[in-house]
Structures are given as structure tokens and as C-alpha cells.
């Protein structure tokens, strides 16, 4: 993915464009009068993205179903349009919905038919599907980075990654995670600990002091092993969000889980109270040596067909 593509995606993900965005002129509509504010096609973002292009038909079917639900005598009123947009996950304020209503009401009769609504929705769904495929490319493109340059990474990048991490699903709103940003002084203590343990080669041949970013992630402990496992799953989701956020900004990550971080000494160095939380992993992050494309190619033994079971 090019830097520009990544930047565009970041803008889409982090600062979604909202409301009326320099809309293109409306195509001629047979001489029906429109006021200035209703002569441009209003564009909105959707809260969720509509399924990909191949699923566009499903999006239209969905629109028809929702239209049927809100319409009376096969037409939609101004108030119902706002509710219908909500149901279709199109982000629009009441004012924006009103402006859209004026735009869609091509014959000016104060109501909207399905025929008036669908072409606009179809284009909106198309735009959403482009966002969806960009998002999926980002997910598919992520890979673990093993070699980092020493260029420091801005704390803002870390904060955005943590904001994405804590948006992860979690059991009973337990929010079982904690993120510990580790500085060079503490990393040097990790190195001493590692040397004192004579950790096996498998730990990593990296020089830990040269890794630009360290973030230790912890997960809550519980008396109930089922709850603790669920919490750990939630924390794993958070880590994935964290790594994807970094990747979207051109920053590589590696989730490490070697023997050093399983020790009480490591927990003590991180200020982790092992009676209430445990170290889930340590995320290294930084600019990838040779660029992100130089990271290990994705290796998966199984494809979708190998892992998908469909029941009647
Ligand atoms: C829970 C967990 C622990 C991991 N621990 C290590 C580790 O200690 N050392 C390492 O080199 N990679 C570690 N990884 C990264 C995996 O090796 C990597 O995700 C895997 O090779 C797949 O590559 P990809 O991330 O590029 O898809 C870990 C990944 C996970 C999810």
C-alpha cells in the first residue's frame, strides 16, 4: 500500500468526513426547480460500510426493506427519511436529512418514492463499498515486522493506536487491558534481566535497545477462569486493533511473547501487580527497515475454503 493510500485511509478511519462534502453538481433532472441548497448531491458517510461491490444488490435489497418499513402508501416523509437513514447506518443530522429530502424530492410533491431514493442510495452504497475494500486491503496487508529502524515514533501514533485498541469488543464491558509505554531506561533493565536469564536464542536476536517503541499490554486476572479467558480474548482483540492502527500509519509492529516477559522480575520492572493482571504481550513498534513491503510475506497454510464450514 502506498503512503498516499495509507494517508487517505487514516483520514477515513480517524477523521471520517461528515455531512456535505463539496458535492458534485446534480445531473439535470428534467427542468424541475431546485433551490441552491438542494441542487447538489448530498454525500454522507455511513457508520458501517455496505458490503463490497459484488454485494451491491444486497445493499439495494436492504434499502428496499427499510424503505418499506418507514413508508406510508409507498412514500417517505421528511421526518421518516431521517429515521430511515439511521436504520441504513448513514450518518446524517436532522438538517442534513432535510437537505437530502429537498434534493431527492424531484417532483416537489413533499414526499419521496423508492424510485427517487434508490439512485442516491446506490451511489452512497458504492462509495461505502470502496471504503470497505480499502479497509479490507489494510487488514490483509498487515504483517509482523522483525527489523526496525531507530527513527522514533511520535507518541500521538501510540495514543491513536491505544484509542483504536480500547474500541475492541470486550466481555461485560470489563475493559481488561492496560498499556505500558516503556522507555529506554526500562528497556536497559529488560536487557539485564534477559542476560541474567541467559535467555535462549529463540527469544530474539534483536538488540532490544535499538527497538524504537515498546508497549507492554496486560490483561486483567479473575477468580473465574472462564471470565479470565474471555478477558484475555478481549485483550487480544485490542492488540490486533492496536497493530492495525499502527500499520495504517505506516508503522510496523511485532507482538512478542518470549520467556523474559513471563517472569515476576519483568512484571516488577513494568509495575505490573501480578495479583490483578498479567502480561499479555509486548508490542514492538517502529519504522520497518527497508519499508513495510520488506516485511515477511504473509504465510498462511489455509485459505477461506479450508476454514469455513457452512451449515444448512
Ligand atoms: C500471541 C502472539 C505471540 C507472538 N509472539 C511472537 C514472538 O515471541 N516472537 C516472534 O517472532 N513473533 C511472535 N508473534 C508474531 C507471529 O510470529 C506472527 O504473527 C506470525 O508469524 C504470522 O505473521 P503475520 O503477523 O505477519 O501475519 C506472536 C504473535 C501472536 C499473535
UniProtKB/TrEMBL annotation:
* Domain EF-hand: residue ranges: 92-127
- Region annotation Disordered: where it falls in the sequence: 31-50
Q: Which residues form the signal peptide?
A: 1-19
Glycosyltransferase found in the keyword field = no
Q: Which Pfam families match?
A: EF-hand_7, Nitroreductase
Recorded GO MF terms? calcium ion binding; oxidoreductase activity
State the InterPro entries in the record: EF-hand-dom_pair, EF_Hand_1_Ca_BS, EF_hand_dom, NAD(P)H_nitroreductase, Nitroreductase, Nitroreductase-like
**Keyword terms:** Calcium, Signal
Q: Which PANTHER family match?
A: NAD(P)H NITROREDUCTASE YDJA-RELATED (PTHR43821:SF1)
> What is the name of this protein?
EF-hand domain-containing protein
Report the source organism: Cylindrotheca closterium
